[in-house]
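Reposting from the mailing list since nobody answered there.

I have sequence plus structure tokens for a pair of proteins and want to know whether others read the tokens the same way I do. The first protein:
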Amino acid sequence: MFLFKSHKKDKYEMQLLGAVQISGHSFFVYKNFDGEISLKSGKEEKLQKAAVRRMIRLNPTVSRILERYRIKPCIDTKTLMELAGGHMNDTCKVAMGIYSKLSANLRSLISEDTIKEASMLHDLGKVLIPSKVLNKPAKLNKKERAIMNIHSMLGYELLKTQNISEETLDLVKYHHQNLKHSGYPMIKSDEHIPDLGVQIISTADKYSALREARVYRRRLSKIESLLILYKEVLEGKIHKDIYKALVEYASKYDKAA
């Protein structure tokens, strides 16, 4: 792990370059004004908050989205920590598991590094979603659901200010889309989305979320989670090859009850 050296400029003014996973732990990758690279976990609150504030400052679209939904730009530190230490790790693990079980032909269409980075950055936009919505212990109403659904677009706009590839950005933006294109954000008629990468990230995200305890429900078993996702296969939302790869991965590596 690289150590960060103090600088006469604001030591928290750093550029987010992406995310990596090392020995089962996830880190955000930053570069400071001297060009030095650092790996930082989500527990380093001041750095993470400063990085998000910098992204907001660099892209006025973020503020416009927040204003449209009457959201004050408050950065949820708890969410940052959970993203770095829990759901981000789990989604990445499942996404890489799905990727590894796909045919060589399908794997050749998208890089392993893109899947890894996108899976660890996909929910970054949730740091700007109000906690009362994000952690509501009940079903969201229509207004709250609309607010929750902007997290993928917020993540996309935040990361546009950084040195993140267009391919990764698209996966962050559309990780709640499906094969029927009935998810969110809405796809324009002339817009193309990378369906394979989106399928890998969205399926891994869903499976990981189902296997986690949430404030509004218990943790679901492996069988329960796979059955829920199989319903989406039947509905044409998840490709059968992606689902098959998930089942192969989960059967071998998901040993929890």
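The second protein, same order (residues first, tokens after):
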Amino acid sequence: MIQTIVFIRHGQSRANAEHLLSGHMDTPLTPEGRKELEILRKTVSYPETDLYFSSPLSRARDTFSILLSPRIPEVREDYIEINFGSLEGSFVESPQASRRYFRNWVHDMTLADEEPYSEVARRSINAMNRTLSILKERNLSSATVVAHSGFLRVYIIETFALDRECFLDIQAPNGLGYVFTYEDGKPVSYRPVTG
């Protein structure tokens, strides 16, 4: 049986615009982010799927509403972003600083009490496998998930055996994402959702 999961990253959030670490922090979409999503809704052919899911954080739920209404998602904690713990809301002063931080983080070297890479890897694989199980149980073949870039990047690295250090090199534009294809529950390929 062939199954597909369309994974869409949320629109630009306030924390994205202000270069803040935001995982579990519930940061809203910016007005610019909302405008970008409205443009994407008109210009991107998001694949139709049988089921729709969203992270519980408002930036994901609001993105879902803008891009995919009138559909209503099942909101699941499974898809929540990396938990940066006491670093939530910290300012990242430059792309170089971000790269240094994540180069360590992907090797489970944390600065404080943030969720380590290995835990996010376990969580993301379990969440996507549960999505496939739900599809199988309901005799359906496709789902859309609106969630977060950290979760998405870790899932791609772990599922397709990429080097962890390519974490920030995996493209995850706001409002876009990837279509994953599975055969009998096993990942076969992924391709970008493009504008």
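Reply #1 (J.P.):
I read it the same way you do. The helical segments are 14-17, 31-43, 58-68, 95-105, 117-137, 149-159.
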